[in-house]
Write a structure and sequence with these properties.
Blueprint: H1 13-38, H2 57-76, H3 83-109, E1 112-118, E2 125-131, H4 156-182, H5 189-209, H6 211-235, H7 237-241
Helix pairs in contact: 2-3, 2-4, 3-5, 4-5
Length: 263
């Protein structure tokens, strides 16, 4: 007698279709996610913060590196160490910044250089200010030159970045110096005096190198003088300074009163 075989397991057709459809959907979603992640691009930084526009990004970095470290150490260092350590470290950072700006970043970013020469015979010291010819429109210089043409290549970003940071540094240190004077922080005078002297020396040296900066400063001074004179004329200040701004009023005499007698 033949033994009956058990019926084969039958899967619900609806369930199998759902499973197959889910598998195909999951497999199709994988490349879509990959493509979407590959097409994602982070937002760009502001144009003024991108050193990629610079011909010498490393020089731009070192142009602000030691300044920023010295400024941050002066503001926050007293909370972490003694005042004498803050003074010593700030002076070292300021000296490093002075050397870098004077010998490296000025030559690379704007094609300027200033230095001191001592005559070995007479012992007299002479200051030498050099500026190379501009390499393209938008960057100008003037004066003599001992710089090679390859070392003076600069673009507009380098030019503006160099002069903005150079002028901003003594302004910040001067503000801190005035604050120290007002609040009588005598322990900060040494650090702030060194910072002001070194920053102002670089400003003066590069100002003497660049004829373009001299012309701009003269234009600013002339414009400021003209605006000041115009404001004074409008307010009538010149009239008050030179004659009271009108005719002097002579006191009227009573015709019934004889001169030299009492009324």
């Amino acid at each position: 007698v033949p033994i009956p075989q058990p019926p084969p397991n039958q899967t619900n057709s609806v369930l199998s279709d759902m499973i197959a459809g889910g598998a195909s959907a999951s497999s199709s979603s994988v490349p879509h996610a990959t493509s979407s992640s590959s097409s994602y691009a982070p937002s760009a930084l502001p144009a003024g913060l991108q050193f990629a526009q610079s011909s010498h990004p490393t020089a731009c970095l070192f142009h602000i590196l030691f300044k920023g470290l010295a400024f941050a150490l002066y503001i926050l260092g007293s909370k972490m160490m003694e005042d004498i350590m803050v003074t010593v470290l700030c002076i070292l950072l300021l000296a490093a910044d002075f050397w870098v700006v004077k010998n490296v970043t000025g030559r690379l970013l704007v094609g300027l250089r200033w230095w001191n020469k001592v005559d070995p015979v007479t012992g007299n010291a002479s200051w030498i200010f050099e500026s190379a010819a501009p390499t393209h429109e938008g960057v100008s210089g003037g004066g003599g030159g001992g710089l090679s043409k390859s070392s003076t290549t600069a673009n507009t970003f380098d030019y503006r970045f160099f002069w903005s940071v150079l002028y901003l540094s003594p302004v910040l240190w001067g503000f801190l110096f005035l604050s120290a004077v007002l609040f009588l922080k005598f322990q900060c005078f040494v650090t702030l005096s060194c910072a002001l002297v070194l920053a102002a020396s670089n400003v003066y040296g590069y100002y003497k190198c660049s004829a373009d900066q001299r012309e701009k400063l003269n234009e600013w001074m002339n414009t400021g003088a003209q605006m000041g004179m115009g404001a004074m004329m409008r307010s009538g200040m010149l009239g008050r300074l030179f004659g009271g701004g009108g005719q002097q009023q002579v006191p009227q005499q009573d015709p019934n009163t004889m001169p030299g007698t009492f009324a």
